[in-house]
Amino acid sequence: MVQELLRKIDQIENADPAYQDGASQVRDLVTDLYRDNKLPLNLEQNLVVGDVSLNLLSKAACYHGEKLPLLPQEFSLLARLIATPEEAVTYQELIQLLWQDEENHGREINLRICASITRRKIKRARLEIINIKQTGYLLKILEPSPNPVPPTT
After folding, report:
1. Of these four, 18, 38, 77, 99, which has the most CB atoms within 10 Å of its CB?
2. Distance from CA of residue 137 to its chain's centroid?
3. What's the mean pLDDT in 102-125?
4. Over 70: is that where the pLDDT of 52 sits?
């Protein structure tokens, strides 16, 4: 199943050079999650936490069926945090995942910016990215709102 997923990622990457960086990030995420035994049993299903689902094949994130507008690095960050909700993921692991082929110089600032932007985009989904000082980030699942805010268009 994982080999099939990696083959599909290669097809996406080869079909359009514009997807090369994103496909590479997803490939690394799948490989890491598989290695750490954190992949869902059936990859055809979505990673789901709360009311948010992530499709690793299409790199789509949805909240109540509505697509969340995530860029490739934001998607990779959220996917990694969703894989282990309520559990801290180190800065170094996230930096390696998001910028594996580049120097780490100054990447902690880039990670903070990416986390901040992603945090804003998923706020209405009742998920919160929390910075654990000198450690990393974790994804907290918030209680459902008694008065849900309708989605903005």
Report:
1. 77
2. 12
3. 88
4. yes
CB–CB of 27/40 below 8 Å? no
The pair of three-digit structure tokens given for residue 25, joined into one six-digit string: 């990030």
User: For the chain, what are the domain ranges?
Assistant: 2-141
The DSSP secondary structure of 96-107, one letter per residue, reads HHHSTTS--TTH
Confidence class of residue 117 from pLDDT cuts 50, 70 and 90? very high
Which contiguous run of DSSP H or E holds residue 12? helix 2-15
Q: What does DSSP say about strands 136-141 and 127-132: parallel, antiparallel, or unpaired? A: antiparallel
Q: What is the pLDDT of residue 132?
A: 95
Q: Is the pLDDT of residue 7 over 70?
A: no
H-only helix segments in 43-151: 72-83, 91-98, 107-122
Give exposure, 94-120, as e/b (b: 16+ Cβ within 10 Å): bbebbbeeeeeeebeeebeebbeebbe
The pair phi, psi for residue 70, each rounded to 5°, is: -100, 135
Q: Which two tokens stand for residue 29?
A: 């995420």
Range 2-141 has CATH code 3.40.50.620: no
